[in-house]
Specification:
The complex is a heterodimer of chains A (about 180) and B (about 250).
Chain A (H helix, E strand, L loop, with lengths): L1 H22 L5 E2 L5 E10 L1 H4 L3 E3 L7 E7 L2 E6 L3 E6 L7 E7 L6 E4 L2 E6 L2 E6 L7 E6 L15 E2 L8 E11 L3 E2 L1
Chain B lengths: L1 H17 L18 E2 L5 E4 L2 E6 L2 E6 L7 E7 L4 E7 L2 E6 L2 E6 L7 E7 L7 E4 L2 E6 L11 E6 L7 E7 L6 E4 L2 E5 L5 E5 L7 E6 L6 E5 L2 E6 L2 E7 L5 E8 L3
Antiparallel strand pairs in B: 2-3, 3-4, 4-5, 6-7, 7-8, 8-9, 10-11, 11-12, 12-13, 14-15, 15-16, 16-17, 18-19, 19-20, 20-21
The chains are: A mainly beta (about 180), B mainly beta (about 250).
Chain lengths: ~180, ~250
């Protein structure tokens, strides 16, 4: 009987472990480590810097993310940095028009002459009637949850502090007694 | 009656997909009215006068009737690991790590769940056309160790989505369909093109190993591919060939 119940115990353990891996990391859990460990540390930017949106000259394409089309325009996300606006009326000869610097940007959509972007924790509506001079129409603050944990799993990290600004990325560091783990 | 309507819909989709005549606004640079088109990896979707935004756990709705003045209408919680959103036929198809939600927009301010198509824990963008939805499942760091495959789901009854096909993949990301051509990004492993004339029996036409792709938008005979090597645009037609039109390369 004992032999029979053994595998089911292992199964149960495996299942709970899997569940833990899957669900356990959605919230930060406190850990108690006494010594220095390798982990991740948040790199902050001030809310003011993050909330600065400006139209620049065309910029080099370095790390393209999502794409969006509207009329003759092609919008290309530069991951975490903003949006390249392209005149794509001739797909054989796409022409860069401008770059809209939007810190933390990953997503976009367009209705009429308005470009909606995520700008770190905010959602922003931009007037693109003149793509060389994009202006902010409306900013909805804190539309997104504060980025309190890294995307990597199974790492200890220094807990993020919203008072210090917005987390723009995570860097590897030697941490003393990190309180957070994901 | 329903299948008759779907028939018309497929016909229309095929028409807009292939007709050069429909190319009316590509010659102008003005964004004009209405909304545009995103890829399958999008987390933003516009349907009518509403903007839908998904993040990790929820679906947020904004009223954009006045496009210059979006206002929040509240949010709906959705399991966890929400990945992508695709608007189709008065519904939202939302890819999460545990399954695909089909939400109806009968009340656009408050989308209601019509069905949840469950699948193995994985990342999963989705697109739909006619009676079928196409879902890619991908494993990866943030998605743990799910399978890598393409699933075809019969959505002729949106309340009862049924899997009708499953094809092993390498590292599938975004996908797009136009008419009978289905394009699937395979990450660093290239781009696959399927003949989707019969979605239950997809036929691989070709694998482009050299096109590293993250997402695609097929629109009016032009396929736009985004990936690590830049933005590539191809012309496609019934001959099922891809002809390179242009590229915006990575500049370092």
């Amino acid at each position: 009987m004992k032999h029979l119940s053994y595998p089911s115990l292992v199964q149960q353990l495996t299942v709970s472990l899997l569940l833990l891996t899957a669900f356990g990391c959605e919230t930060n859990t406190e850990v108690d480590t006494a010594q220095q460990v390798q982990g991740l540390r948040p790199v902050y930017a001030s809310y003011e810097d993050v909330r600065t949106i400006e139209t620049l000259e065309p910029q080099p394409l370095k790390n393209p993310g999502k794409i969006y089309i509207k009329g003759g325009y092609l919008f290309i996300n530069e991951q975490g940095r903003g949006v390249h606006i392209i005149d794509n009326s001739n797909p054989a000869k796409p022409q860069k028009i401008s770059f809209v610097s939007v810190p933390g940007n990953i997503d976009m959509a367009v209705k009429d002459q308005v470009l909606y972007v995520d700008n770190s924790v905010d959602l922003v509506a931009l007037d693109i009637a003149d793509p060389r001079q994009v202006t902010v129409l409306k900013r909805i603050k804190d539309a997104y949850p504060y980025p309190s944990y890294p995307s990597q799993r199974g790492v200890p990290f220094e807990c993020a502090d919203p008072e210090k600004g917005v987390v723009v990325r995570w860097e590897t560091a030697r941490l003393t007694n990190p309180k957070c783990f994901r | 009656m329903k299948s008759y309507l779907y028939g018309i819909l497929i016909g229309l989709t095929a028409l807009t997909g292939c007709s050069e005549l429909a190319n009316k606004d590509s010659g102008t640079i003005n964004p004009g009215g209405g909304s545009g088109t995103g890829g399958s990896m999008a987390r933003f979707a516009i349907a009518g006068n509403h903007l839908y935004v998904v993040n990790q756990h929820s679906l947020q709705v904004y009223d954009i009737q006045q496009s210059d003045n979006p206002s929040s209408l509240g949010k709906t919680s959705l399991g966890f690991g929400v990945e992508t959103i695709f608007p189709y036929n008065n519904h939202l198809f939302i890819g999460t790590q545990t399954g695909m939600y089909i939400m109806n927009l009968n009340n656009p301010a408050k989308p209601q769940q019509t069905a949840l198509y469950r699948h193995i824990f994985s990342c999963d963008p989705v697109v739909a056309q006619g009676n079928y939805a196409y879902v890619t499942l991908r494993s990866g760091t943030s998605c743990n160790t799910g399978p890598n495959r393409l699933e075809v789901v019969d959505i002729s009854n949106l309340e009862y989505p049924v899997q009708v096909n499953s094809i092993p993949m390498i590292n599938p990301h975004g996908l797009g369909i136009d008419g009978n051509l289905l394009f699937v990004s395979e990450g660093d492993s290239g781009l696959k093109v399927f003949d989707a004339t019969d979605p239950v029996d997809l036929k691989l036409i070709k694998t482009f190993n050299d096109i590293r792709s993250y997402d695609v938008i097929p629109n009016r005979s032009v396929l736009i591919v985004t990936g690590k090597d830049g933005i590539f645009q191809y012309r496609y037609d019934s001959s099922q060939r891809l002809t390179l039109l242009s590229k915006l390369p990575i500049e370092n």
